[in-house]
Amino acid sequence: QRAKERGTGVETFGEGLRRELLERVQLESDLDRDVPDRLEVHYQPVVRTADGRPVSVEALVRWRRDGELLLPGAWLEVAEQTGRIVAVGEAVLRRACADASRLRLPVAVNVSARQLASPGFAELVESLAVPGGVPLVLEVTETAVIADVEGARRLLERVRAAGVRVAMDDFGTGWSSLGMLSRLPVDVLKIDRSFVARVDEPDGRALVETVLLLGTSLGLDVVAEGVETEEQLEVLRSLGCSLVQGFLTGRPQPVERLLAAVADGGATAARGD
Ligand code: C2E
Ligand code: MG
Ligand code: MG
Ligand code: MG
């Protein structure tokens, strides 16, 4: 069909596709060149609403590509589709565990579907989780476990025996968040920021309140993600939410800057990317 359209003025469309394809090929070869050496890890604090103190951090990968710092949204999907995510994930995990001992805070690392199912992942985590050391948290999403829930359950049970905690990320956005919760060993619920964004409206507030109740009655820690305004923080506090993460209380930033922020009492904590 497309061949027939050649020379009929549809070329701009073809050109667009061609450019997209070239960009994709370039992206993949740049990833091969840069992973793992040009990956950086930024950390965003999870803060206690009672006193504003950071209680843990989340590791978030960035790619230093030709001098530009790229957020995961621009490339992580391609890494996931092509399997390069396994090398990305291993690099982040190693870096995060090394930085955790400097930060002296638990570090949460996001784990993708491919990584979770990759051979040797449990051994890698077990080798990095220091017994009695700074706790490691693995963040999984429903999408990451849906293909093989039973396999994910076994793996998470195994690393949990090594002292690793498990967080259910983006909770409430999937098709079966509740189903996942009943089938997987989970320690932390992270309320997706799409709900937090609407916490000052009646519906949003009811949703957040329900997830908080659910989490606390199951004995889980509940973190509200994506808190951007004082108003949201106030409502969350009034609902009894004790842990928040968001641009308001601290942006993702390099480990050195976070250490400096903690040292000067959090005055610079809101800066970052
Ligand atoms: P996530 O795990 O849900 O991480 C939270 C994302 O929300 C981060 O985006 C963070 O910068 C952003 N965020 C935090 N507070 C706020 C806020 O107040 N407002 C808004 N609008 N956004 C906020 P980031 O760093 O771009 O990461 C996006 C996603 O990429 C992550 O979502 C996670 O799913 C994935 N990701 C990041 N690092 C890794 C990694 O090392 N491995 C894997 N597999 N995935 C990762
Ligand atoms: Mg996460
Ligand atoms: Mg999330
Ligand atoms: Mg997310």
UniProtKB/TrEMBL annotation:
One MF annotation (Gene Ontology) recorded for this entry: cyclic-guanylate-specific phosphodiesterase activity
UniProt keywords, alphabetically: Membrane, Transmembrane, Transmembrane helix
EAL domain ranges (all copies): 20-266
Stated name of the protein: Diguanylate cyclase (GGDEF)-like protein
Organism in which the protein naturally occurs: Motilibacter rhizosphaerae
Organism phylogeny: Bacteria, Bacillati, Actinomycetota, Actinomycetes, Motilibacterales
